Amino acid sequence: MSDFRFEDFKIWQHACEVGDALCDLADKLGEQHLYAFADQLRRAALSITNNIAEGSGSESKKEFANFLNYARRSVFECANMVIFFERKQHITAEEKNRLIPQLAELSKMIISFKRSLK
Q1: Residue 118 above 90 pLDDT?
Q2: What CATH number did the domain enclosing 17 receive?
Q3: pLDDT tens-digit profile of 45-64?
Q4: C-alpha to C-alpha distance for 51 and 65, rounded to whole angstroms
Q5: What is the pLDDT of residues 14-37, one digit of tens each?
Q6: Cα(85)–Cα(48) distance, rounded to whole angstroms?
């Protein structure tokens, strides 16, 4: 058992893995001098794990569910950016095709976890 309960959640662990991949992509964007895009992607990726963690400290299931909604919305934000970056040829189709399924899976995991709170 961890000091903070969110560390034991599979959704948080998976969000960290996806976040690592998104931050790697942000590093690549930074190398292309696309600093604003890189910063936005990092913030959105971190928002996913932050909201899961913050919500786990809630005193009610309803409040926790709200934070999970915020986390899922950040997943969608990241997916949008990945698609946009591929459309603008800042990343390859292969990079997009590796990240989008991970984000879709994370979104499903968040929905499932939220349902389990009820």
Answers
A1: no
A2: 1.20.1440.60
A3: 999 999 999 999 999 999 99
A4: 10
A5: 999 999 999 999 999 999 999 999
A6: 19
| DSSP-assigned states of every residue in 56-117 | HT-SSHHHHHHHHHHHHHHHHHHHHHHHHHHHTTSS-HHHHHHHHHHHHHHHHHHHHHHHHT
Closest-CA residue to 5 (of 75, 80, 55): 55
**Nearest by Cα to 78 from 55, 100, 108, 56:** 100
Q: How many CB atoms lie within 10 A of CB 112?
A: 11
Q: How many residues belong to the chain? A: 118
HEC string for 101-114 = HHHHHHHHHHHHHH
Q: How many CB atoms lie within 10 A of CB 66?
A: 15
- Residue 100, Cβ neighbours under 10 Å: how many? 15
58: alpha, beta or left? (left if phi > 0; alpha if psi -120 to 50): beta
